[in-house]
């Protein structure tokens, strides 16, 4: 059986997609038609070259810029005189607000900042670790921050 070869750019794009899917390997692998095991290895740093990290940062910055552009256009459209009324004929305010929220969450993920969902999950993990291990809050926060790849201050 022949194995598929992936370029460094393919790996970087897959890891960026993994970031957007909040680390969900199964969902990302399914979307990209990549074996779960392969994606898991890349996510853990195995079978990737140092160039992948550079490609990944480039892909994230490129995608973040595109999302910010879309968000800017959405917000400008909502603020333009009469534009909001015209848009409401085609889309509900709820739809526009949902789009804005999704874009903001994705931009936060690409910047490496947690969404509210991630921050809340991190806080719950800190509590569980403290209960099960007897570690101090600071020690538990340090562990969780590494696990979630977020700043410890977010978990407060």
Overview of this protein structure:
The protein is mostly helical and 156 residues long. Among the domains are: 60-111; 116-155. Helices cover 74% and strands 0% of the residues. It contains eight helices and no strands. It has helices spanning 8-20, 25-32, 36-43, 50-79, 83-90, 93-111, 116-133, 137-148. Helix 4 packs antiparallel against helix 6 (93-111) and helix 7 (116-133) crosses helix 8 (137-148). It is flat. The chain starts with 7 loop residues before the first helix and ends in an 8-residue tail after the last helix.
E-strand count: 0
Order of helical and strand elements: HHHHHHHH
Strand content: under 5%
- Average residue pLDDT: 79
Outline type = flat
- Provide the gyration radius in Å: 19 Å
Decide which structural class fits the backbone. Answer: mainly alpha
- As an assembly, this protein is single chain
Tell me about the largest β-sheet. Answer: none
Contiguous runs where pLDDT drops below 50 for at least 5 residues: none
| Approximate helicity band | over 70%
Feature tags:
mainly alpha; 0% strand; single chain; 156 residues; 8 helices
Compose a concise summary of this entry.
With 156 residues, the protein is mostly helical. Helices cover 74% and strands 0% of the residues.
Question: How does the SSE layout of this entry go?
Answer:
Blueprint: H1 8-20, H2 25-32, H3 36-43, H4 50-79, H5 83-90, H6 93-111, H7 116-133, H8 137-148
Helix pairs in contact: 1-4, 4-6, 7-8
């Amino acid at each position: 059986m022949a194995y598929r070869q992936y370029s460094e750019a393919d790996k970087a794009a897959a890891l960026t997609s993994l970031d957007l899917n909040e680390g969900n390997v199964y969902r990302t692998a399914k979307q990209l038609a990549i074996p779960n095991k392969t994606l898991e290895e890349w996510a853990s740093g195995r079978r990737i070259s140092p160039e992948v990290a550079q490609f990944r940062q480039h892909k994230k910055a490129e995608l973040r810029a595109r999302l910010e552009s879309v968000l800017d256009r959405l917000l400008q459209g909502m603020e333009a005189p009469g534009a909001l009324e015209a848009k409401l004929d085609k889309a509900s305010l709820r739809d526009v607000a949902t789009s804005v929220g999704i874009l903001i969450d994705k931009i936060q993920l690409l910047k490496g900042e947690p969404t509210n969902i991630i921050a809340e999950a991190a806080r719950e993990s800190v509590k569980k670790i403290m209960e099960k291990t007897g570690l101090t809050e600071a020690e538990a926060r340090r562990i969780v921050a590494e696990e979630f790849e977020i700043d410890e201050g977010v978990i407060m």
